[in-house]
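agent> Task received from the user: take the single chain below, predict its 3D structure, and emit structure tokens. No templates, no multimer pairing.
agent> Plan: (1) validate residues, (2) run structure prediction, (3) serialize to tokens, (4) report one or two observations.
agent> Step 1 OK, no nonstandard residues flagged.
tool_call: predict_structure(input=
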Amino acid sequence: MRNYRKRVYDQILEKRLAAKGAVLIEGLKWCGKTTTAQQHAKSVLYLQDPRARAQNLRLAQLDPSRLLEGSAPRLIDEWQDAPQLWDAVRFEVDERGEFGQFILTGSSVPADMSEMAHSGTGRIARMRMGTMSLFESGESTGDVSLGQLFSGRDMPIASCEDDLGTMAFLTCRGGWPESIDRPYDVALQQAFDYLDALAETDVSRVDGVKRNPLTESIPRSSFTAVRDRRFACLESEPPFQDGYTNVRYASFRRPVHCDRGAGSYARGALGRSEYVRPYVRDPLHSRSQGICSGSGR
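)
tool_result: status=success, residues=297
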């Protein structure tokens, strides 16, 4: 196993655990949720461990409290595979009456939300996690800090010695933990493969809707107002009667946590509604724009 790099989220998780019975870590697949949670957990339940998956899923239905046994904080990885555990965790937190009991990690929302009777308000805190910043990956000095800036501290005059090629590479590579310190070609390939898997498999698993791999066209429209009919050809179901794509396509990214903020509607030049695409993580945007060639800088 590679050495763990401290994350900004480590301190955030510590504070959340000290103030709530459980913490739910949400975020993109492969952004480091489980690895970070492992640094703070005293016991772990891996729901996607093939050696015990069938048994654990069955136990989650029959007696979910058995799966919560273990030293606290207990990490429940990919909890959405057994939604019954949500209410079990909430109930167990109430029974124990102590903070810092559980950490839940998940890269998508449960396919069936009806199995969750309680929102978890007051018992389960939420923490949204993203990919690594350049400071976390060791590629920035951190001399200029937004945190220090907003606390009223003076900022030093800093310069960047990286050339344009290096900056372009870092933008295209993104902050996937497994891409850090890898050769250029290998690092860039991580973003390519991620978007391919997201478009072809992960999104469809959430809602059961088969989508065309051309889903990657959507990030190209980040921060622009586009008519939804532009994507009508991508959906396996017919578009709305007004000629715009089924809104399920417009919001497909939220269940798998690859959105940053919600989209909004704007009035186009002809007075018709147009969908304003929200921001997509840089690696996805760069890959879909064809910025990365896959070789060199």
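agent> Step 4: summary for the user.
Confidence is low (pLDDT under 50) at residues 230-251, 261-297.
agent> Done.
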